[in-house]
Design brief:
single chain; about 375 residues; alpha/beta; D-Maltodextrin-Binding Protein, domain 2; 11-stranded mixed sheet; disordered N terminus
Length: about 375
């Protein structure tokens, strides 16, 4: 195999460029066709001479450089494409609403997106700030949209430390919320007491075996595609599992009626305190919420977006060290507020044309027990 140095490649690329950019001849002669053949022959000759040496791509990029840095691509676009669940995960993502300024969405995750955009604007140094282009997508489709290259990242209280089937080609940032977990709520006081009593009698941690015994015979709802579904399918035996399109759909389900709902504990906790006060948290007996497993919420990117992920991790570190992350968590999880007012004053617009048409809270259906 012949070795070529960098100067040789530069000389070849110059020759190729000269050949391809040679002046065109007048119409009506055979010269243009002959010139084109010569150009392609030169290209094939160089490719053949460089094959196996790892320099073909270098030669092509000398002619037409290709940007492969995802951060530079965001800077060049002046936009970062962000996915977010159209289903509510309050207080991380609230339902989208109409305001005087148009359609807006708000929540802790939306405020985090603002921080990301501001940091990107500083990093890019463009005359205009980097604009977050939000796309509200059904939760289960967020992963597909990212892997197909339609998003740069997405957030919606996504559990980074939960193994899930089918989530290939994705990667997670460092957590921005580490007090997550799977919990439960019920509208039936007898179910709440039954679970609490089972835990008190056992005098041990509420592990999968204990929870299977405590919940046996009950109808349990989870949102499809979430970590609660994966936990229930892997650990809970003897229950009737119901898959719902959203948390609101689980609340309204009558066919079948739901005994309890499993889901993200911070979301369920917020919901029963602010929205559905007729439901109550499952507890371990002393008022402490029942936690079936711990979760950390993170930003999701493409597996190969290494530079973007490093940028996000550095930003999250600085937000944490400065106390800004703690302030954001307290602001959304502990303060009293009307979310429509926050949506009007600080919410972000989103691409309404890409929002699922005729979106509603969806339905519930029995899970396929053959896979369990």
């Amino acid at each position: 195999m012949v070795d070529y140095d960098r100067d040789s490649v530069l000389s070849m690329s110059h020759t190729l460029r000269t050949t391809l950019e040679a002046p065109r001849h007048e119409a009506g002669t055979g010269a243009p066709f002959i010139g084109m053949l010569r150009g392609w022959a030169s290209l094939l000759l160089i490719a053949f001479m460089l094959q196996g040496c790892g320099l073909v791509i270098d030669a092509v990029q000398l002619l037409h450089p290709v940007a492969t840095n995802e951060l530079d691509a965001i800077c060049a676009r002046g936009q970062i494409r962000v996915g977010m669940a159209v289903e509510p995960f309050q207080p991380f993502v609230f339902p989208a609403i109409y305001t005087d300024e148009g359609l807006r969405v708000t929540g802790l995750d939306v405020e985090l997106v603002r921080e990301i955009s501001a940091a990107l604007s500083q990093r890019c140094g463009n005359k205009e700030p980097i604009v977050p282009t939000l796309q509200l997508i059904r939760f289960r489709n967020l992963f597909i949209e990212l892997t197909e290259g339609n998003l740069d990242l997405f957030v919606s209280s996504i559990s980074a430390n939960v193994a899930a089937p089918g989530r290939i080609g994705l990667a997670y940032s460092n957590p921005y919320f580490d007090a997550g977990g799977i919990g439960g709520i019920t509208v039936r006081p007898d179910v709440a007491e039954r679970v609490s009593a089972s835990i008190r009698r056992s005098e041990r941690v509420a592990d999968a075996h204990l929870m299977s015994e405590a919940l046996a015979g009950l109808t349990v709802a989870v949102q499809e595609g979430t970590s609660a579904q994966f936990y229930a399918e892997a650990n809970l035996k003897g229950i009737t599992l119901v898959l719902c399109d959203s948390l609101p759909a689980a609340f309204e389900s009558q066919h079948p009626p739901i005994d309890l709902i499993l889901g993200k504990e911070p979301v369920l906790n917020y919901t029963v305190r602010r929205v559905r006060k007729d439901w109550q948290l499952l507890t371990v007996g002393n008022g402490k919420p029942l936690i079936l497993t711990r979760e950390h919420y993170a930003i999701v990117t493409d597996e190969e977006s290494y530079r973007l992920r490093r940028f996000l991790n550095d930003l999250l570190f600085r937000l944490d060290e400065s106390g800004r992350l703690t302030e954001m968590r307290q602001r959304w999880l502990e303060e009293n507020y009307a979310y429509p007012r926050r949506a009007a004053t600080e919410g972000l617009p989103f691409a309404a044309e890409k929002m699922p048409q005729h979106y509603d809270q969806g339905q519930c259906r029995l899970a396929d027990t053959r896979s369990r």
